[in-house]
Amino acid sequence: MQETKPVRTRLLSLDVFRGITVLTMILVNNPGSWGKIYAPLKHAAWHGCTPTDLVFPFFLFIVGVSIAYALSGAKLTHEKHTQTIVRIIRRGLTLFALGMFLSLFPKFEFDTVRIPGVLQRIGIVFIVAGIIFLKTERRTQIMTIAVILIGYWAVMMFAPVPGIGLANLQPTTNLAAWLDYKLLAGHLWKSTKVWDPEGILSTIPAVATALTGVLVGQWLKKKDDAGNKIAWLMVWGVICTCLGLIWDLHFPINKSLWTSSYVLYTSGLAMLGLGLCYWLIDVKGYQKFTTPFLVYGINAITVFFLSGLIPRIMGMIKVQTASGEVDSKTYLYETFYTPHLDPYNASLAWALTWIGFWMIILWIMYRKNIIIKV
């Protein structure tokens, strides 16, 4: 990782949209108690989509938009593609390694470490989407998205599951779960043990999510009237959202399976969200409200990584109380939050405290013009 100065040509609305997404990610990942969470801050139990289920696909969509902005110059310089691909792979593997470190820390039990994960998926998707953008044109990218979504639908809905029987979308017996267990048994999410929400097969349609962002990034970079760009972005946002809802009737919207309907639905909403930010911030110039989100957006991976690491460190620090020894997180939560608020509000207040804590750190970094690039 390195320290550098902010790039002044960054699309401000994209950084703000990324900041809103990462801030929300920290909010939903850090409740005071996992058993006391308001419904919108939970993932859907299986089929369906809550506001929390929008966070990860929004981030991958933003990764795609960023690829179009960051690599457009290199795309035009054909003789340097090999060097660019090496940088793409290096960055993707770094993200994967950071995710593995979080999975291993603090016990470093390699025999049972969870291999899939959020950062791991981001790294893989970044590599694949980055290379596709670099080596193909927009028409091929559209066709790639279509092939992925239709192919994934066909495989999940019609391919028999070995040792089980007919294709199905049940949590433990679908084809994606079978493949996860077949290849990664003992290295899956501890809450399920036999399948993983960031598993192998479901990472393929996640690439399609990033590629929708790649298309949007290329559209926003066009030398065209801003109003026309926003209008078409909103139109396609509505079209994709509606197509996702229609496809949901046959191939249910499901984050854990990253179904094709989920890709269209969430990508459509991401287009609408980014389009609104672009209109307000870059076109209309309403920027006074942006700084709290901007500080999260320009150091997104840094804050996501540290927000996962610090709670693990807190779990290692023990505090002696009258009722016995507890970790420091539990001590702080039960001392300053649960005695004064009802369980759900105490849990929410703890998450909001983390948002405020990281905002102070990120604001200082922002004022000092520090961006940590992975």
UniProtKB/TrEMBL annotation:
Coiled coil: none annotated. It comes from the Bacteria. The keyword DNA-binding does not apply. It comes from Rufibacter immobilis. Keywords: Membrane, Transmembrane, Transmembrane helix. This is DUF5009 domain-containing protein. The chain crosses the membrane at residues 12-34, 54-76, 88-106, 118-135, 142-161, 199-220, 232-250, 262-281, 293-314, 347-366.
